[in-house]
Write a structure and sequence with these properties.
237 residues, alpha/beta, Rossmann fold, DNA polymerase, domain 1, 6 strands, 46% helix
Length: 237
């Protein structure tokens, strides 16, 4: 199939969210005079991940995610905090995170002239847009769709309906989504009736019910998959 429209997730696909999150948490813990440890970071990530997964399943709202995650985490540390204020500070630190996944810029350089490129991301709009701008990724995209602004989130079919209603001359049978999340990106693509490409750098196994159309382990493999001219690597970031 000749694809014309590429939908990119950003966190863990083009931007290194783990590095960004770690830096933001370290700063937040320092503000709260709470010692950073790998165990505390891992516990926060577990709480946060479970809440976002509940959001993807439609069980809670985005507001519940951002107001309850720090309340829950700090309660386990024996502290009472204002979840909304804590999240505002965390988001400010998170917005500064612009570290790229290896090969992201080179990949987009090779695709920009041939395809329509769009961002499809779950998250808070101000944070995601700031990170896209700060990382230098924003100019590569013809449009940016953030769940907070659409009123829906991946993998909801309504999110993708919103996206397709706003992309000119788009065809679903010529569209592919590229992302790292089986439950948000791959399931969302399946429900939307489009091709899916799972970015799977850890070589994890996909369950049969969420089998992607394609799987890549490095970003430059997408170029081969699409039949585009080979990426010229200029960095090893």
């Amino acid at each position: 199939m000749n694809y014309t429209t590429l939908l990119f997730d950003i966190d863990h696909t083009l931007l290194d969210f783990d590095a960004t999150e770690r830096a933001a948490l370290r700063q937040l813990f320092e503000d709260e005079q709470l010692e950073w440890t790998e165990e505390r970071e891992a516990r926060y990530r577990t709480i946060n991940r479970s809440l976002w997964q509940a959001l993807e399943r439609g069980e809670i709202t985005r507001q519940e995610v951002i107001t309850s995650r720090f309340v829950t985490f700090f309660a386990e540390q024996g502290r009472t905090v204002d979840g909304s204020r804590m999240d505002t500070r965390y988001r400010a630190y998170l917005s500064q995170g612009t570290e790229l996944i290896a090969g992201a810029i080179e990949l987009l350089d090779s695709l920009k002239e041939k395809y329509q490129l769009y961002v499809v991301t779950n998250g808070v709009a101000a944070t995601q847009r700031a990170r896209l701008k700060g990382s230098g990724l924003a100019p590569y995209f013809d449009g940016i769709f953030v769940s907070e602004e659409t009123g829906y989130q991946k993998p909801m079919p309504a999110f993708f309906d919103y996206v397709f209603d706003r992309i000119p001359n788009v065809r679903r049978d010529q569209t592919i989504i590229i992302g790292d999340s089986l439950t948000a990106d791959i399931q969302g693509g399946i429900l939307a009736g489009i091709a899916t490409c799972w970015f799977n750098p850890t070589h994890a196994a996909a369950p049969a019910e969420l089998m992607p159309t394609y799987t890549i382990n490095q970003l430059n493999q997408l170029v081969t998959l699409l039949g585009t001219k080979e990426v010229v690597w200029t960095t090893s970031k």
